[in-house]
User: Fold this.
Amino acid sequence: MKKLLCLIAVIPALSFAQKDDSIFIRKLANEILVNGTAYENLRHLTKNIGGRLAGSPQMTMAENWGAAVLKQVGADTVIMQPCMVPHWVRGGTDKASITSVNSKRTRRPLDVVALGNTIGTGKKGVTAQVIAISSFDELERRKDEVKGKIVFYNAAFNPANVRPFTSYSEMSAYRTRGASRAAKYGAVATIVRSMSEGTNNHPHTGSNNYNDSFPKIPAIAIGLEDADHLWNVCKSNANVQVSVTTHGYFLPDAQAYNVIGELKGSGKDVTYLTVGGHLDSWDNCEGAHDDGAGIVQTMEILRAFKALGYKPKNTIRFVLFANEENGLRGGNKYAEEAKAKNEKHVFALESDAGGFTPRGFGFTIDAEKLRKIQPWVALLKPYGVYELSSGGGGADIGPLNRAFGTPLAGLQPDPQRYFDLHHARNDVFEAVNKRELLLGAINMAALVYLVDKHGL
Assistant:
C-alpha cells in the first residue's frame, strides 16, 4: 500500500480520475520492460526469415510464424484472412556503371538497386547517355533532349526540414512516378537519387508506379555518394554514358494473408479496435525497422494484456498486414471485409515509422475529439511521448478511415535516423535498440488501453 501511495504522489499534474490509468500503464510498462519478448521476436523474424517481399517464400514463412506467435502469446482467436498480392521478383543482382565520359571508355561501378515493380533491362542491359536533372520542372523544360537517354533525377532531401518525413513526401514522387514521366518523352531508363539523407552509399529501393499510358522502362535508385559523383561528372562533361542491368519481372498474383489475433471484448455490442503493422518488407534488407518493429510491438501489446489479465471492452484485433510495400492489398482487404460484414470499427493504430524512441502519436480525428484526449499526454510522458498531434495513421489502416471514417493514429518515433536505412540494406536487426523498441510498445499499449476504456 505504501508503494502505491508513493507512486500516486510522484505523478505530476494528474487528475484523480487519471490515477487508476497511470497505475495500470505503469504495470504495462513494467511487464514489457522486464518480460518483453519483442526484441527476440524481431531477432527471429529478421535473422531466421529475413526480407519478406509479397509473394515470396519468406513472406509465407513470416505469416506462419506470426500466426504461431499470436497463438503462443494468448490470442483468443487467430484468423488467416486471405488476399491476393502482386508477385514481383527482382530476378538477380542489379548493376550499373559509368562506361564512358566524352567518348573515352572507363568503368566506374555505381551502387544501385532496382525499384520495386519495375521491369528488367534484359540480359544485355541498357547503355545510353545520361541527362541529369534536378526536378520535374527541369524535365519539362528539357523534354526535347530526353529521347533515347537515361534520365537521372538528382532530387535531394531538403536539409532544412526538421521533420524528415516532410522531405520524403516532397521527393518520393521521383521514385514513384519518375520512370513514367521520363518515358513520356522517350527515355530508355531512369536513375533516382535514393530517398535518404544518410551519410552512406546504400541505395534505397521502394515502389515504382507505372502510368500505363506510357512505355514501361527500367528504373533504379542510386546511393547518395555515387549520386553526387554522377551529378558532378554529368555537369562537367557533355556526354556521360551509363550501363544499367536489372532483372525484375512479375509472376501471377500470389496467395497471402493478413494474420489477425483477436482479444475478445466484453461489451454488449461487438466493436473493434485495430492495432498493427505490416509483415512484408523489401527483399534487399531484413526489414527490421520497416516494419519488423511494428509487427513485434503489436504482438507485445497482446502478450502484455494477457499477462496482466486485461479484459477489453472492445474486441481488439492485432493485425499483421500483408503487402503494404508494393500494393497495399492487405490493408484494402481488411477494410473491404469489415465493410462487407458491417463491422463497427471505433479506432485503429499503426506502427510503421521504425523502432526508434517514441515521441508522440499523430491522429486522424476531428479537432474536438483531439482536444478532449490531450490530458492523456500526462499519462504517456513518463515513457517518452510528449505530443498528441493532428495528422497521422498509417497506410494499412487508412482504408478503414476511408470506408467508415474510423479514427486513426500512428506511433511517431524520433524520425531523424529513419531514412538513413529505409528500404536499404542496412535496415537490419542490429540497427534496432531494444529499449527504444520496447518503449514504443509501452506507449502503443497505453494508448490502446486508454481508447478501449474511455473511448474517443
